[in-house]
Amino acid sequence: MNRHINNLQRFIEAQQGVYERALAEVRRGRKQSHWIWYIFPQLEGLGMSYNAQYYGIHGLDEAKAYLEHPVLGARLREITLAFLHLSGKTAEEVFGGLDAMKVRSCMTLFCEVSTDDLFAMVIEKYYGNKLDEKTLELVNKELSIPVGLGAIAGDIIGSVYEFNPVKSVEFTLFGKESHFTDDTVMTVAVADWLLSGGSLVDRMQDYGRKYPYAGYGRGFRKWLNSDRPQPYHSWGNGSAMRVSAVGWAFDTLEDTLVAAQQSAEVTHNHPEGIKGAQATAACIYWARTGCSKEEIKEYAEGMFGYDLHRTCDEIRLTYGFNESCQGTVPESIIAFLDSSDYENAIRLAVSLGGDADTMGAITGGIAEAYYGEIPPSIRREAQKRLPEEFVRVMISFYEKFIKNKRVYIE
């Protein structure tokens, strides 16, 4: 079929003179004409007819482009909202049995790329909160980070609480404003460096300059834009926030510590900056190689001198915003130690009321390595907020460094 990715003009042409009629039919509660393929598009590969293939969405990249298109995205939201606001109707009564299934496929697809809950609300109201499994299978087959997303998801969850702190584990994990920050950009840069070799400085500057509005600190921003970047003796937690990939990449603790130091000292060459990166990477290494929480605690205290004999409940009482390694890495490790699963670990880290995105990244990297997985709902919500190039780097990192390593789950 002669069609290119993101050739959205095919939808514009098909909807011309038809969309208004489709909208009116949905508002009346009964579809009467034939337009389902290009008004509620599905993922390519779900149908065999000419229309199903020609109007099939070619992956998540095109789905994002469709939703962001000023005409197509607005129309999809408008007609979806009209369907949502109907009362006393089932999806089958509105669309007929077969087309109701296509609508569920459409809603499932756009749930995967939308950062609001419009399409999820339709799934909940009309389909018993059950997403279309075939669509999810195709999405997961196309682009999914099985392991290695822990720090990134923690960063995204914490992003809205960095300057709006909460002192409770009861908060919304993802919302419209949830976004990746400099923590994620640099995490991907380090993963790419481990994959490809070469200069870490060049890799970090390339990513930082491509994503200039990710929330970098003043000193790091100056370093990013320097023609001759030099370490600036920082003890900030930027070295710890980006190091998670190092914890996965090596077969010995010694190699892990060496690489963690290398990843830190290009900017954070203060002893505390280096120690924070090494401690985070070491905890990930210990977690993924089967150490118990008590062993991780003992090793981290002995090797790095951190006081881990506190609890989140004790810390939360007086803790506030802190950007230093020495003031965030121990607390982030404690959030992991106190946790019962990945989600609980992130909730505990954010609930301390500190540098929430960075602490979420540090805790998240360790928690994923220990528990062996991230809940699918969190993985999907985090991944939909990432540029496709980030996803591809992390998938490549997984294939090279994680896939054949055993992940221990208690």
Describe this structure in words.
By secondary structure, the chain is mainly alpha-helical. It is 60% helix and 0% strand. It is built from 25 helices and no strands. It has helices spanning 9-15, 19-28, 36-39, 50-54, 59-68, 72-84, 91-95, 97-111, 118-127, 133-142, 150-158, 182-196, 200-210, 218-224, 238-241, 244-249, 253-265, 271-288, 293-304, 312-316, 329-338, 342-351, 356-371, 376-383, 388-402. The longest helix has 18 residues, at 271-288. The termini are far apart.
**Strand percent estimate:** under 5%
The run of helices and strands is HHHHHHHHHHHHHHHHHHHHHHHHH
- Tell me the CATH architecture of the largest domain: Orthogonal Bundle
Morphology: elongated
The N- and C-terminal alpha carbons lie at a distance of 49 Å
CATH topology of the largest domain: ADP-ribosylglycohydrolase fold
Helix content: 55-70%
- Taken together, the total number of domains comes to 2
**Structural class by helix and strand composition:** mainly alpha
| CATH homologous superfamily assignment of the largest domain | ADP-ribosylation/Crystallin J1
Give a summary of the structure in a few sentences.
The chain is mainly α and 410 residues long. It has helices at 9-15, 19-28, 36-39, 50-54, 59-68, 72-84, 91-95, 97-111, 118-127, 133-142, 150-158, 182-196, 200-210, 218-224, 238-241, 244-249, 253-265, 271-288, 293-304, 312-316, 329-338, 342-351, 356-371, 376-383, 388-402.
